[in-house]
Specification:
By secondary structure, this protein is of the alpha/beta class. Helix content is about 40%, strand content about 20%. It contains nine helices and 13 strands. The strands form three sheets. It has a five-stranded parallel β-sheet, with helices on both faces. Strands 9-8-7-6-13 form a five-stranded antiparallel β-sheet, with no helix packed on it. Strand 6 and strand 7 (about 150) form a beta hairpin. Helix 7 packs across helix 9 (about 205-215). The radius of gyration is 18 Å and the shape is globular.
Length: about 240
Amino acid sequence: MTTASETPKPHILIVDDDAEIRELLSRFLSKHEFRVTTAKDGRDMRQALTDWSFDLVVLDLMMPGEDGLTLCRQVRGDSAIPIIMLTAMGEDVDRIIGLEVGADDYMAKPFNPRELAARIKAVLRRSNSTATQETVDGRPEKMMFAGFMLDPLTRTLQRGADSITLTAGEYDLLIAFVDHPRRVLNRDQLLDMARGRAAIPFDRSIDVQVGRLRRKIEPDPKNPILIKTVRGGGYMFTPEVEAA
């Protein structure tokens, strides 16, 4: 495991079993306004996450032993840190699996390091810009719905004393719903509102994100009552939303 020198730049963790890819990305990203730490497997990754604070993880899907999907689930168990998954597979089904376990973006190998750097910057903008946008948009400091309290300034969701961890994509989607309660929103509208079109440019990503969000807020995700599916139309957020 190697670590770049201390700087105020965004700190990126690269997890890949291929030493050449780790070295290539470490050199390239270090020259483009990032700090970089690399890990060759899950053990190194967990140690790095314990020792350092990261702004984003680039995680290879196909690795011996613990694969990227398993590691992504582990990270998502207690953290909303943005994750970009890398894999040699390029089918939509693989993208959907990655999104289902909590990835924020996906890139298929082989890839251009410049494109990866652009994706990293885009995901970081999405995850870091929300508080500023809430203030500009005049949104209430906190909002209540169905027993939940959403705080846009801290990007936190609570139900009573329980805090619910949301990824950047899940948070952006929930904000889109909360801002437009009891209104049918189609996939194109949700992609635009949730700022996901540039990062994940295929419509099925919304269905995946809705499924993940339902698992976190619905009493019974298989029979949703808060986020209803409207046949041929899209989705509707049913609760009444109030300023807290």
